[in-house]
TrEMBL record:
<dbReference type="GO" id="GO:0003841">
    <property type="term" value="F:1-acylglycerol-3-phosphate O-acyltransferase activity"/>
</dbReference>
<keyword id="KW-1133">Transmembrane helix</keyword>
<feature type="transmembrane region" description="Helical">
    <location>
        <begin position="7"/>
        <end position="29"/>
    </location>
</feature>
<feature type="domain" description="Phospholipid/glycerol acyltransferase">
    <location>
        <begin position="71"/>
        <end position="185"/>
    </location>
</feature>
<dbReference type="InterPro" id="IPR002123">
    <property type="entry name" value="Plipid/glycerol_acylTrfase"/>
</dbReference>
<comment type="pathway">
    <text>Lipid metabolism.</text>
</comment>
<dbReference type="Pfam" id="PF01553">
    <property type="entry name" value="Acyltransferase"/>
</dbReference>
<keyword id="KW-0808">Transferase</keyword>
<keyword id="KW-0012">Acyltransferase</keyword>
<protein>
    <submittedName>
        <fullName>1-acyl-sn-glycerol-3-phosphate acyltransferase</fullName>
    </submittedName>
</protein>
<dbReference type="GO" id="GO:0006654">
    <property type="term" value="P:phosphatidic acid biosynthetic process"/>
</dbReference>
<keyword id="KW-0812">Transmembrane</keyword>
<keyword id="KW-0472">Membrane</keyword>
């Protein structure tokens, strides 16, 4: 049953993605908000497909910690789901993502149009400064910057060294830095075909103390995210459905 559901979801996911990507091409000439609206609709559609086809529900915790305006969300990254859900949950998400993704036809055009923030991982200092300028501009315009400080997806229970990009962004802005934990990987695994029925928990933690010294910010962020992620993974699954609307 899981295999059949996963197959149906993947077919529906790629069909929806292709349809939206092609239909949105004319909006490349429209105001940025029009493309952002389409991407939000797409993300909510993917979440609905997960619920209806695969029996995946959401448990959202601590959303009250996200302010109305600019902030930096430093998110645990276990699944491709993590790169989708914030488009649905935030009013104006600006993801920090690999530069190579902007070269993908259609997707890259749309991501560039809404102002996603590319970073060249092999570009050294100049690339980091370019990413930082774009992140600052996004925050100054009141957007929510979403960054995955691990820099890659990790399996549940796996840990990797956190990357310093989030520290640079935090140091250049007064926007609050908000740790976010999740256990999405046990439902939608890294590069996994199977989408298992169950609950994806997202736990938004209180912002880190303001003006935290750089040397303390990354360890504090990692401790907060990993401790809460371990706690989520230790919970037994329970049916919760916080529909994203």
């Amino acid at each position: 049953m899981i295999v059949l559901r996963s197959l149906l979801f993947n077919v529906a996911f790629f069909a929806l993605t292709a349809l939206v990507a092609v239909a949105a091409v004319p909006l490349l000439l429209a105001p940025r908000g029009a493309m952002l609206w389409v991407m939000r609709v797409w993300a909510r559609g993917v979440i609905a497909l997960l619920r209806l086809i695969c029996g995946v529900t959401l448990d959202l915790r601590g959303m009250e910690h996200i302010p109305q305006g600019a902030c930096v969300l430093a998110c645990k990254h276990q699944s491709a789901f993590d790169t989708i859900v914030w488009l649905a949950l935030l009013p104006d998400a600006a993801y920090v993502l690999k530069k190579e993704l902007l070269a993908i036809p259609l997707y890259g055009w749309h991501a560039r149009r809404v102002g996603m923030i590319p970073v060249d991982r092999s570009g050294g200092g100049p690339a980091l400064r370019g990413m930082l300028r774009k992140a600052q501009a996004a925050l100054e315009s009141g957007r929510q910057v979403v960054i995955f400080p691990e820099g890659t997806r990790t399996a549940p229970g796996e840990r990797v060294r956190y990357q310093p990009g989030v520290v640079a962004i935090a140091g250049a802005s007064d926007a609050p830095v908000i740790p976010v934990a999740t256990d999405s990987g046990r439902v939608w695994g890294r590069r996994a075909f199977h989408k298992r029925p169950g609950v994806i928990r997202i736990s938004v933690l209180p912002p880190l103390p303001p003006r935290l010294p750089r040397a303390r910010l990354l360890p504090a962020l990692e401790t907060a995210i990993e401790t809460e992620t371990d706690r989520l993974l230790a919970e037994s699954p329970r049916p919760v459905d916080k529909t994203v609307g």
